[in-house]
Structure formats: structure tokens, C-alpha cells
Amino acid sequence: MAGPGKRGMPMQKPKNTGKTIKRLFSYLSEFKLHLVLVFCCILISAGAGILGNYMLKPALNDFIIPLIGAENPDFTPFITMLCKMLVIFLFGALAGYANSRLMLNISTRILYKIRTQLFTQMEKLPLKYFDTNSHGDIMSRYTNDTDTLRDMLSQALPQMFSSVLTIVASFVMMLVLSPVLTVVVILCIVFMVFCVGVVGKHSAKAFREQQAAIGAVNGFIEELIEGQNVVKVFCREENAKKDFNELNERLCKAGTRANSLANILPPMMNNMGHISYALVAIAGVLLVIANKSNLGTIAAFLQYSKNFTQPVTQMAQLFNGILNSLAGAERIFAIIDETAEVDDGYVTLVYANVLNDGTITEAFLPTGEWAWKHPHHDGTTTYTRLKGEVVFENVNFGYTDKKTVLHDINLTAKPGQKIALVGSTGSGKTTITNLINRFYELSQKPAENGESALGGKIRFDGINITKIKKADLRRSLSMVLQDTHLFTGTIADNIRFGKLDASMAEVEEAAKLANADYFIRHLHQGYDTVISGDGANLSQGQRQLLAIARAAIANPPVLILDEATSSIDTRTEVLIEKGMDSLMQGRTVFVIAHRLSTVRNADMILVLEDGKIIESGNHDQLIEQKGKYYRLYTGLNN
User: Fold this and answer.
1) Among the ranges given (66-70, 107-111, 446-450), the one the predictor scored with the smallest mean pLDDT
2) Which pLDDT belongs to residue 7?
3) Vertex 118, ends 131 and 347: CA angle to 5°?
């Protein structure tokens, strides 16, 4: 059979079925005792059905027919037999219930383990993975794919195994009771499978067309919702409705055809099953009339034929569901098998005691000072005071080996300096900051066609950053991005994200420094106001202020501000810059800015174009040069 997957999702097929099944069995192998019990329960349940049906033959031949017309019928043996049948079916029902409970427990615990592995691995993946994969697609691994996998483990697999047992046992019993009638049943099933194949082929094509139409409608609606203000400004409501009606009509036709074909299958199978049942009954009656069989045998055979045909159709449906689930499992395992972010650093950040003679020793409690603990191959360990000096030496970088983004970047940021990076979009400003915190790694590639080789060095306080553990390196940095992200929780919790053990006094001090304290206190619950939906109940400027406060509370020696004031009005920007000036004291600051008025007081302004530093100097020096920076600042094009 063919048709949609769960919740109308398109049917997926695994690329490597054998490998995926083998991996799932590795999870199931942890529940060997449970699976043995499940196997026994399925055997009992299937066996009860087979045995109960066979008892129809003696019930009719030995009890019901002889009792017809008897003057003083004795129902005691018959009632005894009915009680035996009741006990058998009761055991089958209890075994079926136990099977369901056991498989539910197994599937839940397996999914718990898989989700844990999935999330743990996700936290280890490099930023590049999230930049190159759709977030919605990653989320679907946690939702749709795990749902289909749960259904397969808890329902489809036990049902498939039970159906196979029922089919085999029923077929054997049918052969025992009447080989002639068994041939009739087989011919009917062959015809049913042929009809299903014909309809299913057209149904699969129709559902693919429906999924394409759904994608077009959803994309159009999402686009229109996000751009509703533009639609209204240009009075394009009627055009939007016209375009939507066309897409909606296309979806209506595709959906009608797909679901019509899909809805044909169940009644068609059902009616064909009834026809098969009727044909077998007619053939059975003819055998009884010809004295080739008896009523008890025919009655039992009819039950077995029903037990035979129903699992066959059920297995066809289960098979599609299992393939869809295996495809989902394959997608989940694809993330779990992704190469984790490599961290071969060995230099760590520790609390430090700085003695009067300048000697640095390691402290085990916060002292307000930090140092880089650098173990050497000869067994010695040196300590370098954390100051925040950043040096780029001949850095060439490309996100892929085929295209170089940064060309021969050399810069030195002394502790306490404010370095501004300016230039057009795509000039390499954000790439530089991504390399500082090792979101992306410098790679090595030989020079080709006269170009500089990819690579170079970035030093932090004189130490190559590849030697510093990534977690320790990032603890010494703090970032404020243009696209602010807030987490579900209180405002205080979001500020405290920069320093989880911060006191409430520190939270408030950081908010004051970022000029966020005023608007926070005017909220209904102040610092205890709960944020949800990425801060949808706050303005973009307020969200940016919280991000700045979050960076301030971390108290790092190096700050990276990527358009940190881009979403804030001019008046608020002036107030923030006063707070930021005090925050920047004694710290190395990298500022990415398109609004050049915000970087006038920078110690060094680097102008980038096509990944190259084409100008450098302070504001006055660059204005005097009347080069690229001068044209950007004054708005002149030539």
C-alpha cells in the first residue's frame, strides 16, 4: 500500500535499512528479558486466537448439532467447553495487555536514551553544522522522527510479529481443515494485492503532489504573515488573496485526489474481504452438500480465513509505517554520528594570585584575577596573566577550501583597546570575531595559483588559541550579537546567563550599566517578569539592552559587539555608550558597526573590503586619508 506518513507527512524510505535495523537492535538488546516476555505474550495471544477458533469445530459437530431436536438435552459438557474457550480467550487478552505494557515501557526508555544522546551530541556540534542545516529540520528529529520511532517500537513491530504468527498458524490450520478452500483463499488474496498495488501506485503520486501543494501554501502564508506591513503599505491585499486562492485551489484539487484514492483502499479491502469470505462460505457449503466436509470444519475454516486475510492487509499498512519510522531513525542517527567539535587545547583558565614581585600562582577560590595555566612537554607549568591581547598573524581563512574569505589579516589589539571593524556586508567582519572565539577553525591548505595558503595564527595573550581549551577561551570572551536571543525565564535569569552564580545585586548592577534597569523596574514584575517566545513581549531595543547586561555581568577581558546598538534609538544609544565606556575600561573590545558614528572614539578602525584590510587608523587619520572610510562616513560614493 502507499499513502501518507504520520500526520500527513510524506512517506520516507531509509537509505540503509539493514544498518539502521542493526543499530536499533543494539538498543533493544539491553532489554533481553523484557523481549523474551514480550515474545511469550505474543505467542500466548496468537495461540489463544488459533486454539479458540479451532474449538468451533467440536462445538458445532459434537455439541450444537447433536443437541438440535434432542428431547432432554444435557448442556453441561457444552457449558464446560464454553468455559474452556472463555479461559483461553481471557488468557489471550491478558497476554495482549501485558505485551502492550512491556513494549510501551521498552520504547519509552529507548526513546529517552536516544533523545538524551541526540541532545548531548547536538551540544557538541560545531557552529558550522547549525549554519548549514535548517533549524526546523533539526527540530523535526526531536518531534516527528521520534514520534514515528516510538510508534514503530511500541506498536508496529509487535503487531507485525503477531500478524506473521497469526498468518502462518492460520495457514497451517486451513491446510489441515481443507486444502481446497485454502486454494480459494489464496486466489482471493492474490487478486486483492493486485488491486491494492494499482490503486496504491496512483495514490503515492497523488500524495507527492499534495505535499508539494501544501509546501507552496505554507510558504506563501508564512511569507505574507512576515510581510503583512509591506502588503498593507502598498495596498496589495487583493493581489495576495488572488495568489492565495490559486495556490489553495491547487491544494484542494491535489488533496481531493490524493485522499480520494487513499480513502478507496480501506473500503475496497474491506469489501473484497467480505467477498472472499462469501466465496469461501459458498465453496464450503458445496463441500458439505457433497459430503466432503462438515459444518464444524467450515465454521472453523471461515474464522481462520478471516484471521489470515486481515493480518495480510494490516501488514501492508504496517510495512509502510515501519519504513517511515526507519527513515526517521536514520535521520536521528545521522546527527548522533556527526563529527563533534574537536577540542585539542590543553591551556586552561584558572583563578590566580598575583604576588608583589609579579609572580603568578594558581588559586582555588575567586580572587578577581585570572591566568592561563600552560603545561609544557618537559613537565613544567607556566602561568600567564589574563590581559586580553589579541593578535592576528597572516590569517587567511575560508569557510570552504574553494573560496577564501579573509586574506592576509594582520592586526594587534592591545589590552584595553577598542578595535572597530567596518566595511560593507560580506567583507569579513563577523568572520574575524568567529575566529577569535573558535566558532570556526583556521585550516591549513597549500598555496595555489599564487594565492596565500589558508591558515596563519591567532594569539591570545601570546598563546596560540589552538592550544587553549575552547570552553576556557570562551569564558574569557563575551559577545553581544545583532540578533538577540533570550531564553524562557525571568529577566534576572536571562541576565544571569552570563554568570550563573551572580547575586541579585550583580544582576541589577549589570542592568544599570547597560541602562536596562529603568525599563525593567517599570515592568509589572520587575526583574521577576517572565520572558517567553524569545522575548516577544519586549521591544527589540529592550531585548538588546538585556543582551548587553548579560555580557556585562560576565565581566570578561574581551568584548565582541556585533552591531550591539543597531536596534536602539539614538537617545538610548547615547545613554548606553556612557555605560559601555565604563564597561570597556581595561578591556579589549572588538566592535562591528555599520553606523560609523558609534566608532569615532575607537583606538583603531579597520576598514575591510573583500576580506582584506584596506585601511587602518583612528577616525581623524582615516578622514584625512579621504579613502574608503571617508566615503562611508560622509556618504560619498566616489
Assistant:
1) 446-450
2) 40
3) 70
Exposure on the CB side of residue 408, measured as CA atoms within 13 A: 4
pTM of the full structure: 0.71
| Cα gap 591→346, rounded to integer Å | 29
The candidate with the shortest Cα–Cα distance to 191, out of 303, 284, 264, 273, is 273
Question: Are 629 and 621 contacting, i.e. CB atoms less than 8 angstroms apart?
Answer: no
CA 380 to chain centre: 45
Q: Nearest Cα to 27, choosing from 132, 108, 148, 142?
A: 108
Query: What is the SS3 assignment for 198?
Result: helix
Mean pLDDT of 317-342: 82
Gap between the Cα atoms of 558 and 415, Å rounded = 8
In angstroms, what CA-CA distances link 603 with 205, 429, 582, 588? Answer: 64, 17, 15, 10
Most confident range (mean pLDDT) of 2-16, 474-488, 491-505, 533-547 is: 491-505
**Residue showing cell 504520520:** 6
Strand partners, 413: 390
| The pLDDT value given to residue 82 | 85
pLDDT at 94: 93
Mean pLDDT (whole number) for 517-541: 84
Give, in order, the Cα–Cα distances in Å from 523 to each of 11, 503, 565. Answer: 49, 20, 22
Instruction: Write the single-letter amino acid at 371.
Output: A
Residue 83 near residue 1, CB atoms below 8 Å = no
Residue with cell 466432503: 292
- Please name the residues in contact with 117: beta carbons below 8 A apart, sequence gap of 6 or more: 336
Neighbours of 188 (CB within 10 A): 19
Q: How far is residue 295 from each of residues 74, 282, 302, 317, measured CA to CA in Å?
A: 21, 12, 11, 34
What is the per-residue pLDDT for 9?
Answer: 45
613, 427 in Cβ contact below 8 A? no
Q: Which of 597, 599, 605, 598 is nearest to 621 (CA)?
A: 605
Output the nine-digit C-alpha cell for 258: 490524493
Cα distances (angstroms) measured from residue 203 to each of 1, 199, 468, 573: 9, 6, 58, 60
What per-residue confidence (pLDDT) applies to 37?
92
**504 contacts: CB under 8 Å, gap ≥ 6:** 492, 527
* Mean pLDDT lowest among 215-219, 589-593, 630-634: 215-219
What's the one-letter identity of residue 545? Answer: L
What pLDDT digit, counting tens, does each position of 388-441 carry? 899 999 999 988 777 888 999 999 999 888 899 988 888 888 889 889 988 888
Q: Is 408 exposed, middle or buried (0-12, 13-18, 19+ CB in 10 A)?
A: middle
Region 579-607: mean pLDDT is 78
